[in-house]
Every structure is written in C-alpha cells, then in structure tokens.
Amino acid sequence: MVIKKICCIGAGYVGGPTCSVIALKCPDITVTVVDKSKERIAQWNSEKLPIYEPGLDEVVRQCRGINLFFSTNIATAIKEADLIFISVNTPTKTFGNGKGRAADLKYVESAARIIADVATGHKIVVEKSTVPVRAAESIMNVLRANQRSGVSYQILSNPEFLSEGTAIDNLLNADRVLIGGEDTNEGNAAVEELCWVYEHWIPRINIITTNTWSSELSKLAANAFLAQRISSINSLSAVCEATGANVSEVAMAVGRDSRIGPKFLQASVGFGGSCFQKDILNLVYICECLNLPEVAAYWQQVIDINEYQKSRFSAKIIESLFNTVTDKQIAILGFAFKKDTGDTRESPAIHVAKTLLDEGAKLHIYDPKVVIFNISCYYFNVENCQILEDLTHPYITDEPENVKDSITIHSNAYSATSGTHAIVVCTEWDEFTALDFQKIYKNMIKPAYVFDGRMILNHEELAKIGFVVHTIGKRM
Ligand code: NAD
Ligand code: UGA
C-alpha cells in the first residue's frame, strides 16, 4: 500500500503543527486534520490560527487548500484515509479510579470507536497522543471487537516529541522519530509505511523502530527525564540561596561535563505545560499498579520538588513584602508556561497568582501572547479571557467574582507595572529583558521590588536603579 491520504483526529497543539509539516514535506499526500470542535476547525481555516507557534502560519499558508485540509467531517476523512493519527488530548483523570494521576483515555477511546464505526478497507491507526504503556492494546480491543468484514487494522505507536514554541523547528529537524509496531509481517509492513512518510524529510538513521510497548514507555520516560533535570537544578537552587552559591554558575559547571550536557538546566519558578506533570503522574500510577512502589516514589519526587519550587517562590514574595500582600498592587509579567507560546496549561504563573490572590493582593497581569490571543480581553471585555478563565476555575477558587475584582489584564508591561509595589516575572519572554526599567521604577510605589522567577533580568542593573531584587538560586 502507498499512503496517499492521511487523517489526523485532533486539531490541537500536536495534530495541527505535525500534520502541517507532513503536508509541507509530502506534497504527494493529502492530509486532513479533523476535530469535534467546530470553533477550533474554523480557526484553523481562518487567518488567525488557534495556536501561536513561530513559523506555523507560514507552513499552513503554503499548504492549506492544496494538500492540507481542516474539517469537522470526521467520518469522511477516516473513510478516505490510508493512515489515521489519533492525536487527541489525554488529560489526567479528575474522578474515579486513578483520579489525579492516571491518564484519562476517554478521548482516545472515542476516537477508536469512531474509526471502528466508519472505517472501510485496511487502515493503519497511529497512536500519536501520549498514552500509558499498552494503550495500543485497548485501541486494538475496541477496533477488533467491532470489526466488520473487509476491514482490517494495524496499530502503531508514534509518540510526538515537539516542544511548544519551537514545534516547527522540532518537527523539521527532529532528533529522532520513534515508531513502535507489532513484530509480525503485517506489523512490520505498517511500520515501513509510516517510515516512508517521515523519510520525505527525516534521514532514515534518525527513525527508530521498536516494539509497541517500548515506544509508548519511551515517550513517558523522555518527559520524565527532562522534568527530572529541571527538578534537580531547582532543588539545588534552594541550596544556592542558603549558601551563596549561584545556580547559573553551578548549572554551567555541571553541564560542561559532556556526559551531563548543558540543556534543561535552567532553574526556574518551576516547570509548567500540559504534559510534564500529567505524564509523570501517569508513570507513577503505572508503577503503583505494577506493584513497584519504590519506582513510583522516585518519579513522584520530581513532581513534589516542582510543587515545592512554586510554593517557595510564592512564599518568598509574600515574606519580602513585609509578610503581607493584602491590597498590595503586584504586576505579573508573563502568564504562558514558557516563552513563544500562548498556552497557559499548568503554567507556574497560575500557582503564583493564586497564592497572591489568596493573600488579598491586587494583580496586574500582562503576557504578550496570552492577551493578544483573546481579542475580547484586549478590549477589556474580560469574560472570554484565558487568564481569567484559569484563575476563576473551580480548582483555583470558589469565589470567582472576588478574583475578577482583584485582577486587571494589561496590554503592555508599562501599564501593568505602573503604580505597583512589586513586579513578578513568571515567563521568560525576550521582550521583558528589553524593558526600560528606569521608566518603570519611576512609576512604582517605593520600595519597588522585582521577583525574577526566570533569572532573565540584569539584577545588578536593577539594583543600581534602586529596585530590591530577588531571584531564584542566587542571594542578592
Ligand atoms: P489539545 O487539547 O490541544 O488538542 C486535542 C484536540 O483533540 C482538541 O481540539 C479536541 O477537541 C480534539 N478531540 C478530542 N477528542 C476527539 C474526538 N473523539 N474526535 C475529534 N476530536 C477530538 O491537545 P495537544 O496538546 O495537541 O495534545 C494531544 C496529545 O499529544 C496529548 O496526548 C499530549 O500529551 C501529546 N503531546 C502534546 C504535546 C504538546 O506540546 N502539547 C507534545 C507532545 C505530545
Ligand atoms: C515538553 C518536552 O520538552 C517535549 O519534548 C514533549 O514533546 C512535550 O513536553 C510534551 O510531551 O508535551 P513543552 O512542555 O512544550 O515540551 O516545553 P519545554 O520546553 O519542555 O518546557 C516545559 C517547562 O519546563 C516550561 O515551563 C519551561 O519553562 C520549563 N523549563 C524548561 C525550565 O524551567 N527549565 C529548563 O531548563 C527547561
């Protein structure tokens, strides 16, 4: 079989960029990305894409309407496709067995059921969502239990390793592509078909093939290793603050060992994003279910240190501001979980903002992309604002009206900081390093404080201007 048509179920942060790049690099393949959300598909078909990702607009503009389509017609796209990616969300379960830890596979299951309902002929079904080990077996159970005559399936695991903010570059120049499949003639043939798709632009040597379960586990393992590095350096940042060592110098000295390497050693207010926490919790849950409590406890500690880091940073703000922030005006610069994305899922800024709100602070929040992405927010019709949605969520507060009254969303850093007692940097946006802090200082209440949760500002310069400066992993 030569793959001529691909369908991707799930037009999110993974499905959208991944399929756009496949369409760009495989002009001989028609790619249709489908989603149950009409709004999301309408945005993918508009001038303003639903996600901010550097370079993505350009790729979509080149392919959309030629060999890249976004549609809500899920059944037709499945029927016509030779290969179907399942790229739906796999959040942490919020109730029932495994609540707060296990991955909720209801969206994966519903995608499998739609495929089972409408598929004709032979389909290669590819698990792109991040899933627990042996999830492919569950997908196969759904498909085979509902199999009609003339229909056959092969299931592959092909986890995605892109990072938000650098997704297009990660997809174009992937360190590796991982494909797991069944070790049978049919399984190997399906693996080869998917290899052929990636070989349009990825050198074969960078395409790794394994058994299905290794592929599924490798995805969880990769995220766990990455998050573990951040928790390791963050744990040492506390030691630095207590001793006078500087965490940037420690990271540099440690990272120069070629066995360790310099990446992912940036101490911070804590890691965020939709996946690290959810995937490690999932790994912990799997270990507990496998009766491996020591392994579960080992990985749980990565999450615990991250919680500790977020709490430590928030506590430092309150303590430094004379142990009370009630009615104090505090500017939060950055709300996305990292720079170059408008995504706020599990952003450490949410934790910091919640703690300050609980203590009675008035917050002035500015983020370059989270704000811009919510047009209504721009005009201060705050009802549809992502930031407010995050901070008034029932998990965060049971007094949403009070929270709304305590927050002002700003369209630039100067207005956000004007008249405030303190600035808290939660996201490492480049534009924050280029701000005129002399001007900002003049318009703040004195003593004026800066809490740099990302270690991106010039602390010595700020101190010279007159700011009282606190940061992570360095005594000021
Ligand atoms: P997302 O929430 O942005 O997108 C998922 C989309 O799937 C949503 O638009 C939703 O409407 C749609 N959907 C859910 N069920 C559906 C169904 N039955 N039919 C049609 N559409 C359906 O999620 P995401 O960030 O793209 O993540 C998707 C998966 O990829 C997750 O498992 C995640 O862990 C993994 N992943 C994410 C990233 C990342 O950077 N966000 C990176 C690597 C892997
Ligand atoms: C992460 C992984 O890097 C991807 O490989 C993976 O595909 C993805 O999760 C996923 O499975 O969803 P992402 O969460 O988009 O990607 O972004 P990262 O660059 O990994 O950053 C995650 C968080 O860690 C951010 O809050 C970031 O600011 C923080 N971080 C990162 C640090 O605090 N220090 C660092 O040194 C690096």
From TrEMBL:
Source organism, top-level taxon: Eukaryota
Residue ranges of domain UDP-glucose/GDP-mannose dehydrogenase C-terminal in the record: 331-459
SMART domains registered for this protein in UniProt: UDPG_MGDP_dh_C (SM00984)
Entry-linked InterPro entries: 6-PGluconate_DH-like_C_sf (IPR008927), NAD(P)-bd_dom_sf (IPR036291), UDP-Glc/GDP-Man (IPR017476), UDP-Glc/GDP-Man_DH_C (IPR014027), UDP-Glc/GDP-Man_DH_C_sf (IPR036220), UDP-Glc/GDP-Man_DH_dimer (IPR014026), UDP-Glc/GDP-Man_DH_N (IPR001732), UDPglc_DH_euk (IPR028356)
A Gene Ontology molecular function term of the record: UDP-glucose 6-dehydrogenase activity
Known EC number: 1.1.1.22
Keywords carried by this UniProt record: NAD, Oxidoreductase
Enzyme class (EC, first level): oxidoreductase
Keyword Magnesium among UniProt keywords: no
Positions of the catalytic residues: C275
UniProt keyword NAD, yes or no: yes
Pathway: Nucleotide-sugar biosynthesis; UDP-alpha-D-glucuronate biosynthesis; UDP-alpha-D-glucuronate from UDP-alpha-D-glucose: step 1/1
Any Pfam family matching the protein: UDPG_MGDP_dh
Transmembrane segments: none
Catalytic activity entry: UDP-alpha-D-glucose + 2 NAD(+) + H2O = UDP-alpha-D-glucuronate + 2 NADH + 3 H(+)
Residues reported to bind NAD(+): 10-15, 35, 40, 88-92, 129-130, 164, 275-278, 345
Gene Ontology biological process terms from the UniProt entry: glycosaminoglycan biosynthetic process
Family note: Belongs to the UDP-glucose/GDP-mannose dehydrogenase family.
Protein role: Involved in the biosynthesis of glycosaminoglycans; hyaluronan, chondroitin sulfate, and heparan sulfate.
Protein name in the entry: UDP-glucose 6-dehydrogenase
Lineage: Eukaryota, Metazoa, Ecdysozoa, Arthropoda, Hexapoda
